[in-house]
Amino acid sequence: MSATIRLTMAQALVRYLCNQFTVVDGAKVPLFPGVFAIFGHGNVTCLSEALEAVKDTLPTWRGQNEQSMALAAVGFAKAKRRRQIMVASTSIGPGALNMVTAAGVAHANRLPVLLLSGDTFVNRRPDPVMQQVEHFGDPTINVNDAFKAVTRYWDRIVHPEQIISSLPQAVGVLLDPADCGPAFIALPQDVQEMAWDYPEAFFEPVVHRIPRARPDRDRLKEAVDILRQAKRPLIISGGGVRYSGAEEALADFAQKRGIPLAETIAGKGAVTHDHPAHVGPIGIVGSTSANALAGEADVILAVGTRLMDFTTGSWTAFSPAAKFISINAGRWDATKHRALAVVGDALETVEELEAALDDWKAPEAWTARGVSEFAKWNDMLDGFQKPTNDPIPTYAQVVGVVNAKAGDRDLLITAAGGLPGEVMKNWRVKDPNTFDCEFGFSCMGYEISAGWGAAMADPTRTPIVMIGDGTYMMMNSDVYSTVLSDHKIILIVCDNGGYAVINRLQNAKGTPGFNNLIKDCRVKEPFAVDFAKHAEAMGALTRRVESLADLGQAVEWAKTTDRTTVITIVSDAFTWTPGDAWWDVGVPATSERKEVREAHDAQVAGRKHQRVGV
């Protein structure tokens, strides 16, 4: 008879997590290095008891908001390139629901995080308990069912023995390159307290290694045949390149084969800005260089990208005759828009593709065209970033100053609003894997929390977080978290008086400014928040600056400080770095406004250029 150990379900769950390991850069490290938690009546009596007993092995970090602490876990996973995973735990009810948005961020971005929420009583004896949402026709439903829409794995433990089968399945999803995303497990309060005789073998240490799927030989041969016929090939490097560790292999492949390399939002930073094959970001927030090449390319080699609308210009960025080869660990992402789906790990597939191409290279004229277009784009960037006598600086100028002062390894983080487009265009990556723009979900509030998680993931570099005033107002509490836990970030707040970039879209489609900029909202009197004073009240060091010269000096100062440092600057709400890709959005088919009707007609005309596919 096998040996057993009697533990509560919560104690057994925690012990299992403590015995999962992985290998990062040749070293054995915990797969789950920590837990973010806000305790409530669904997790404070049992799960917290189990976590307290291992607090030196599996550290618990207290969040300020369930959404933000789970976003910190997402930022941690991204900084670790999916090789280590944080846990986030909440109580039942509103605490759990607060975490749903963060689950959506992880799901859209294919990032691993383990979410554990308290749940109501399986025995239903005390029903309805505080914070229980009752469904009259189905008493098995509660708020935790909301996670089903935004997680890759979902379970509710209704018997203590079930974790023996559930936890390995959750870990399997978290580590699967093709199915990677958040895993959620609901922990009913009465089941957490139950004791069970668990087999000791369940807690034996396990070292996990992320699998690398090889591509099908026939599909690879088809890809080789298509590339050999290409006259104007273009590589699109996505986030999967970084998660696979294929950055160097793809960069070398592009340079050796003379193929221009463009980047998606998630893929930016796989190569440095000045890499010989690099031609800039592609799509709606992309460069004129990459978009010009995309429009003429006859073969698109998409590596590790889900080809979202911001990458494809809502599928107008490419010639209708262009052929797509999609290399992706996930079948779903590979099989899009009539692409030749080469399902496999990015690193393994690129290396096999390189070996199979023999002496083939793209035509020299096409390679030179990429170099020429990118040189023009860099000249344009210099012009956008050049200081002027205007009293209020543009985003491009602000980004240019911060970029110039940033160290080679400093990590840039942003997510929503006007900054993603501006940093995608204006931020020149100096070292691989130093750029994080969360745009899979474009979640306002990700930025500061992700900075906390990223600082925790790698204490040898300082995250530089850039946000607008709207994002600061939405989610700023983790400024306090970073100070409390001694995880320094540098936060740049660009105050442009509201939700400026969405105001831009509203105006562009014929509606005058309404409910976006503070001055256009139903308010008694517009006024500006002193973000520096607010952040100072949370323990940060702060400085308000008025000019680009002052900004540069402030960034230099921020790099010398011993804690989170916040710099605020007023920025232009109406001047943006130009972009030339089309975007499909809904525009009213009828309106009293001539401008709206004209915008609708233009939108309909633009749709005629969309590539037909699924």
Q: What do you see in this structure?
A:
Residues 35-131 form the Thiamine pyrophosphate enzyme N-terminal TPP-binding domain. This protein is α/β, with parallel strands linked by helices and 614 residues long. It has 3 domains: 4-208, Thiamin diphosphate (ThDP)-binding fold, Pyr/PP domains (Rossmann fold), CATH 3.40.50; 217-376, TPP-binding domain (Rossmann fold, 3-Layer(aba) Sandwich), CATH 3.40.50.1220; 386-570, Thiamin diphosphate (ThDP)-binding fold, Pyr/PP domains (Rossmann fold, 3-Layer(aba) Sandwich), CATH 3.40.50.970. The protein is built from 24 helices and 23 strands. The strands form 5 sheets. It has a 6-stranded parallel sheet with strand order 5-4-6-7-9-8, sandwiched between helices. The chain has a 6-stranded parallel sheet with strand order 14-13-12-15-16-17, with helices on both faces.
